[in-house]
Every structure is written in structure tokens, then in C-alpha cells.
Amino acid sequence: MKNRIKELRAKNSLTQNELALKVSVRRETIVFLEKGKYNPSLKLAYDISKVFNLKIEEVFIFNDE
Amino acid sequence: MRKIFLPIFIITFSLVISGITLFQSKQSIEPSFLEYVFVGILIIFFVLGLYFSLERIQNKKNVFAEEDELFRKISEKASSVSYYFSLLLWVILICVQNNTYLDIKWIFLIGIIGMASMYVFSWLIIKSLGFEE
Fold it and tell me: Do A40 and B71 touch (CB under 8 A)?
């Protein structure tokens, strides 16, 4: 699963720390998400999408495989 | 706060008890190489425990979550991986014990420290590789 967190974060002028605080996770989790090393839970994916005012599928790109 | 100081307390306690057990009974005899290795491993655990506790304190100070879903998932995965390897370790140790004259004290010590090492290594490896499930 790919995601656009880094791109959207830059667009919204948010730092990793600020995003982590908004979705109540550690900054390390945001780093892992941006590197594609972690697939978030549905709740975290929803919370992140809400921060950017987008739908989940606009932030997270699911692979059919 | 309990979650921050508990690991430090457990590791310090284990370190002190191991130190006393290893060196008290052999005051006149020089500690063996294996004993130095075990104390070295325990000191590494102590430093790691201290590092992760300080990281938690830092997160708390910066109003970040002390624990989040990634942290919990890594811990769960490390526990399950180390559990399977620990079973294997104990089977190997039982075979070794049957075929050698190694003291039962050493078998337990190797087993317990081996289990702890497996958990720490699994945790570090999973953390560095990521968690894509």
C-alpha cells in the first residue's frame, strides 16, 4: 500500500511532529508510514485522512495484489 | 510513569542479582570468560532499557503518545517470533545438557539470557525492517 502523506504534509505545511500530535501517535510512526514501512490501522488511516480533509482512498493507494 | 521506570527497575534488579550470584560464590576464583560474557550482555540490556525509557520520557515531555499502534504491533510480533525461537533454544539446550557435563545452572542462565536476547534482537530487526502486514 502506497500513501501520499509526505506530499500532503508538505502541501499543508505540516511537520512530522505536528501530524503525529494531531493523530496521537509518535513521530516515528509517521516516519515509518512515509517510508512505506508500515501499513496503518483503519482508524489511523481515517484520522490521517481527516487531518488533510480527504477520503482514505485519496491518501492511501491500495494495490490489488 | 510506571511504564517508564518498570523496565529500568527490572533490568537493574536482574543486573545486580546476576552480579551478586556470579561473583559472590567464587570470591577467590577469577570469574570465567562465560561469566564476563553474561554480565556484558546484561549491561547491553541495561543500556537499551535506559535508552527506550528515556525515549518514552522524551515523548511524554513533547506531548507525543508514549505508546502507539506501531509500537504495540512491533512488541507483539517480537514476542511471537522470540517465543518460537525460545522453544527451539530450550530443545537445543536439553540436547546439549544430555550430551555434555554442563552444569544445570549454566543451562538455565543460557536459556534465560538467550530468551531475553531473542526478544531484543527480534524487536530491533522488526523495527528496522518495518511492519507491512
Answer: no
What is d(CA B107, CA B92) in angstroms, rounded to the nearest whole number? 10
Chain A residues touching B63 at Cβ < 8 A: 21
* Structure confidence at residue A51 (pLDDT): 94
Report DSSP letters for B31-67, one per residue. PPHHHHHHHHHHHHHHHHHHHHHHHHHHHHHTT--SS
Say whether both B48 and B76 belong to one domain. Answer: no
B94-109 tens-digit pLDDT? 888 888 877 787 888 8
- Of the pLDDT bands very low, low, confident and very high (cuts 50, 70, 90), residue A43 is very high
The verdict on a CB contact (< 8 Å) between A35 and B130 is yes
Query: Residue B31 pLDDT more than 70?
Result: no
Residues B40 and B19: beta-carbon distance below 8 Å: no
Q: Which CATH architecture has domain A2-61?
A: Orthogonal Bundle (1.10)
Host domain of residue B40: 1-67
Q: Strand, helix or coil at B29?
A: coil
Amino acid in the structure at residue B59: N
ipTM computed for the complex: 0.79
Dihedral (CA of B95, B100, B105, B106) sign: negative
Cβ A46 vs Cβ A56: under 8 Å: yes
Mean pLDDT, all residues of chain B: 79
